[in-house]
Each structure stands twice: as C-alpha cells, then as structure tokens.
Amino acid sequence: MTYISMTFYIFVLAALLLYYILPLKSRWLVLLIGSIFFYWQITGTGIAMAVILATIMVSYGAGLLLQKTRSRGVLAGSILLIILPWFCIKNGNYILEILLHRSAVDWIVPAGISFYTLQVISYLADVYMGRITAQENPLKFILYVMFFPQIVQGPIPRYGRLADQLYTGHRFEERMVVGGFYRIMWGFFLKLMIADRAAVVVNEIFDYHYQYVGCYVLVAGVLYSIELYADFAACISISKGVANLFGIRLADNFNHPYLAVSVKDFWHRWHMSLSQWLKDYIYIPLGGSRKGRVRTYINLTLTFLVSGIWHGAGLRFVVWGLMHAVYQIVGQLTKDIQRKAAKLLGLEEAPGVTLWVRRAWTFLCVMTAWIIFRAENLRAGLQMIWSMFRVQNLWIFTNDALLSLGLGWKEWIVLVISILILFVVSVRQEQGTSFSDMVFRQPVYVRWALYLTVIFGIMTYGVYGMGYDSQAFIYGGF
Fold first, then answer.
1. Measured CA distances, 89 to 85, 103, 450 (Å)
2. Could you say which of 9, 36, 78, 260 has the lowest number of CB atoms within 10 Å?
C-alpha cells in the first residue's frame, strides 16, 4: 500500500467515513486504528512493527520519567536506546562490509525509521526542556508517532504543534477537504508527470556513469535535482492533503527551494522540518552563532555532518553534508567580494538580473552536491563532476543523443512542459499568488471541469500503467 495506490485511497475513504460518523471525542481512535493498520500493511512483518512499538514504549516511558526528574542521564540513555535500531539498520552493513570486511546482514527496515526516530528525540528533548508536558495516555502517544499520512516520509512533526490536532475531533469543513483534494492532485502531478519520468534518464546515466560524460552528467544532475524535489514534494503534498481531509494541518516542508538566492537560503526552504530539527537540537545546543565566528563555523560543519550521516551510510553522504557546510562558510567569508563583483559588473542597477544570477549559481552549487548524493559511491560522483566540467560535448543537445536515454521525443515534451508548469507555479506562488484560492472562487461547474481536466491529463500522460512499478518515494529510503 503506497500513497499513490488505489488501495490506499479506498483505505482513506473508509477511515474518513468512520471518522465523521463517530462522535467528536472518539474520532482520534479512528486515526489510531487506521495508523496501526496502515503501518502493518506497508511493512508486512511483525519485526518491523515490534521495532517501532519498542521505540514508542521507550520514548513514552522516558517522557514520563523526564517529566518528573528532568534528568540529563535519563535523556541521554533513552536517546541512545532509540538511536540504536536506526544506527544498526542504516549503518550496520557499511560498518560490516567496508570497515570490518564481514558479510552483510539482511536487516528488516521499519518504514520511516529515520523520520520517527528524530520525531521521538525531539519529543523527549522538549519534555526535558519543559517546552511540553509528557503524554500520559499511551494510545494517544502511539497515534502521535504513527499518524499514517506522515509516518513514511515526514514532515517531521513536533508534539506541541500536532498532538492537539490529532486528539481533538474535527468537524467536516468543505474548504479544508477541498484544499486537501488539491494537494493530493498536485502530488500526483509531481510524482507521475515529473519525478518518475525524469527518473528514467537519471537512472540510465547514473547506473552507467562510465559511459556518459560531460553534458550527459549535466543533464543527469539537473534532472535528478528536479526528480528528487518533485518526488519528495509529491509525497509531502499527498501527506498534507490526506491530513487535511481529516481537518488536520501538517507542517510545511518546502518553500520553492530552487528559487533560493544562496545555499543558506536553500536550507531555509528545503526539507524545512529536518532543517529546523537540526537547528533546534544540534546547532543551537552546540552554541549556534553565540560563541564567535570560528565556533559558529565548527557548529555549522558538525550540524551538516549529522545531516549527511542521517541521510545514509558511506563517505558520499558525509562529503555531501560537508559540501553544504563549506558552501555556507565560503558564502559568509566572501560577502564583501560578492558585493564588489556585483557593483563592478553593474548588477546592482539590475536587481532582477542579480536575483536570477544568484538563483542560478545557488542551483548549480546544490546540483553539484546532489550528484555526489546520488552516485553509487564517492569516487564515481567525483569522476562525474570532473567530466561535467572537463568534457565539451554540447552536440548531445542538437542531435538525437538524448533520445537514447529511455525517453522518446513525446515523453521529453511532456516532461519539459510539466517542469515548466512547476516552474511557473513556483514563481507565481513566490510572488504571493494562491492558486487554490483562485480555483475555490470559481463556480462549482468550473471547478469540477478543472478537476476532471487535471485528472484526465495525469491519467493520460502520467508514468503509470501496465509494466509500471509504483515505486516507493525516494526519501522513504532515508
């Protein structure tokens, strides 16, 4: 059962009917039972269910104990116990194979383990700091951790922002439900029209990177950057949309990240729930920017090192994280040089041009790091980047070379048009346009005509059907 399967929406429809039939005070029980059922369906193993329930019970008990004692030892001990399953599953085989030269272990991977691990750590830290009161009802705590729209891939919720919404029954609100429907449709558009179609080319070039050099790598880097964003944003959009159907608002996770004007700005827009988590529970506890410039840069580097390790085992993830730290440090150190260069080139008199130059440069930096992130190993990633700048083969854009990467010319047209739609929507939303408000103000017959047009377009041009494997969302693997 995935977020883009028919089975999932039959399940959601059944849960909705029960939710709005039951009395308000009992509606959270529908979410609880539905969340447990959903998690059981997507894991299919008792071991995975046992792991998440063990994590929940440890964090539940530790929360109650921290409420009474405010003990740093209890906090540290409970966090170590919670991290242990994640560490073994995510890093165990890397340590066994690469460092110890032993045979790999076939780990059972509980869905969403990286996300719910951070979720319960933030809960314990907030109880310890006195920001929230520990939940005394174990069933309500299970619902908080396992709430099915966000368990697989986030956004990473904070107890203080989500819990009351889960436990308080919501009345049916047309505007909220319709808004949820919009988000679900947008998620399907991003996933089926962009992400899964771009993945065909991306997988071909990265899987056979030794055959493709120069501008092929540039194409793969650009498309992977778009694929990753479209895929992750699709899952988040569907998650938020499904939650809206129950009257619940999940936190935003993206704010048009590829319109960022610096790498620092990018991290204010990309995977915002993770960025805020790293800031609140890693960067600030280390001292943040309060202890001088050198210490600030050290704290920044350590924070991005944690981010890299969280994303996966291997040097490429560590290097990817460190690249983003270096980007930000260099950006801070060269502020004056950047201003002088802009003045020398006359860009200060053309703010619109300056804006897009900064956006393009930021995208290039982020894309280069994504190549390291996606490559099969660090060496392959570095070789690909080197060839991108070294080999001049612009001819691939003027002949049929790109048509040999898995997409025909019609599919390329659909992909390019879909990316342009995403770009235009992002720019307009950045400027303050609310498309959902525009649609909602239209007469009912106009809205339904638009709904049917979008659904028909996705069904006609989306990457699905016989032979199509409805793949898991990319970030579910992290």
1. 6, 14, 45
2. 9
- Domain range for 17 is 6-171
Indicate the number of domains in the chain.
2
Q: Which residues are catalytic?
A: 311
DSSP-assigned states of every residue in 99-133: IS----------TTHHHHHHHHHHHHHHHHTTSSP
pLDDT, one tens digit per residue, over 190-216 is: 999 999 999 999 999 999 998 999 999
Does 160 lie in the same domain as 21?
Answer: yes
Q: What are phi and psi of 133, to 5 degrees?
A: -100, 135
Count of other CB atoms within 10 angstroms of residue 160: 13
Alpha helical stretches, state H, 262-314: 263-269, 272-278, 284-286, 293-311
> Is pLDDT above 50 for 163?
yes
Burial class (CB in 10 A: 0-12, 13-18, 19+), 37: middle
Give the confidence band of 113 by pLDDT, cuts at 50, 70, 90. confident
pLDDT at 474: 63
What pLDDT shows up at residue 98? 66
Residue 224 near residue 320, CB atoms below 8 Å: no
SS3 content of the chain, % helix, strand, coil (to 5): 75, 0, 25
* Residue 40 shares a structural domain with residue 152: yes
Asked if the structure places residue 1 within a domain, the reply is no
Q: 462 and 358 share a domain?
A: yes
Identify the DSSP state of 283. Answer: I
* CA distance linking residue 163 with residue 127, whole number of Å: 14
Each residue of 119-133: pLDDT tens digit? 999 999 999 999 999
Q: Give 349's pLDDT tier (boundaries 50, 70, 90).
A: low
Give the per-residue pLDDT at 44.
Answer: 73
Sign of CA dihedral 270, 271, 275, 278: negative
**Rounded Cα–Cα distance for residues 95 and 404 (Å):** 38
Cα–Cα distance for residue pair 478/465, rounded to 1 Å = 27
For residues 229-237, give the mean pLDDT.
94
Rounded distance between C-alpha atoms, residue 277 and residue 159, angstroms: 12
- 96 with 103: CB under 8 angstroms? yes
- Angstrom CA distances, 386 to 78, 391, 392, 436, stand at 44, 8, 12, 44
Tell me: do 296 and 181 sit in the same domain: yes
Same domain, yes or no: 288 and 340: yes
8 Å CB contact between 387 and 214: yes
Domain-terminating residue out of 104, 139, 171: 171
Q: 185 with 166, same domain?
A: no
